[in-house]
Amino acid sequence: MSLSIIILAAGQGTRMYSELPKVLHQLAGKSLLEHVHHTASMLETRGIHVIYGYGGDQLIEEHSHLDVDWVEQKEQLGTGHAVKQALPNIPDKDLVLVLYGDVPLITNETLTDLVNAAEETTFSLLTTFVEDPRGYGRIVRNGNDEVSRIVEDKDASNDEKRISEINTGMMVVNGKALKQWVEKLEDNNAQGELYLTDIIEMAVNDGIKVNAVQPYSEVEIRGVNDRAQLAELERYYQLIQAHQLMRRGITIMDPGRFDLRGDLEIDSDCYIDINVILEGRLKIGSGVRIGANCIIKDTVIDDGVEILPNSVIENAVIGKACRIGPFARIRPETVLNENVHIGNFVEIKKSVVGSGSKVNHLSYIGDSEVGTNTNIGAGVITCNYDGANKHKTIIGDNVFIGSDVQLVAPVSVSSGATIAAGTTITKDVAENELALSRTPQKSMSDWKRPEKK
Ligand code: UD1
Ligand code: CA
Q1: pTM, two decimal places
Q2: Are 86 and 199 in contact (CB under 8 A)?
């Protein structure tokens, strides 16, 4: 049987107090909706329909990479009304899975169980038992312990309010039947809404058994209604990710202080100290050590690299056995070949550094090509910007650049050249040349310092 999926995402999320539509808020670097979409698309599906309302343009724009059918719900008249908007695009013979865009941690395993349960009876419902059922729809069962209806919190009697089995909202229903029941929904309830949950009783009256299925973990059904709940789910999700990595041979000094906001491919025997943030798409080789407080985004790191504390790296390629930091900043489009050393307070931008070269202290290297085994001394600056345009600096192999040198680009320093400390380079330096520009030192003997009056 084919499966169509509806994701409800039209709610504004009043309690987020945000300009952003709720499902656009991020969990581990991806929007809530992307999490649900990702899990939904692991199922074999004919199509995913997203019901949107508030902030639609922004929602669609930010998710233009997703293959979904966007369905507008102009007014939020209830979950039944929301589902109704997508039904014209769904074939009668499909099973229809209803998911919530603000319940991000639902798993493929649970959804697979839910779909399988619906294949038996044409209707399955994800329920769970909670200590504090306030706010949720309660599952009312008959004398045979079969699901007979759902009563919403606001409509429940005192007895019904004591029921601890709650409706998660997720369900799988036969398309044709769903269409018939949704047509019949009425808003004569405490909230004046079309409740999707009223179809349970209609199904039972039509002689259909509603198969209740439970999730593997309680967090799977937790929704995000405010920023505190978002933060709780974030920590939970980060712990899951950290544990997955540890099981694959990665040492994480403190899984409670680890953040992966993206997709990480990593080999074994890496070591990650506390407060490291990994963002975007990352590929990390084996035996890589990342010190405390590093932030690394969209970067490829080869085997045996050591990144010392407090370094920030973005959109770079780091070759084997490089050593970076502490306090280094590697900016986009930087390529470091093997065995490069980048030390403290060094910034490298859009530059290629050849293997074995060292930039160990307090330098800025931008728009540059540096050859192999070159040594760049403390405080060397490539002056790449003339106030209007950026220019390149080319430095060859085995070059020695003394401390406090400025290289005014465009300029090139050929292999084997030596540049004396304190020099300002404005002209190209030829192979094996020594270049220096220094004001000669003056000495005045027996110098008397001025005295305070
Ligand atoms: C709903 C269920 C309740 C269940 C609870 C689980 C109904 C009537 N009630 O209640 O039984 O225990 O979820 O969290 O279904 N939405 C729309 N359009 C609308 C209304 C809602 O897209 O017109 C979306 C919301 O964005 C949200 C989801 O549907 O993602 C649930 O809506 P919400 O208002 O939170 O439902 P509850 O009243 O909490
Ligand atoms: Ca809710």
Answers
A1: 0.93
A2: no
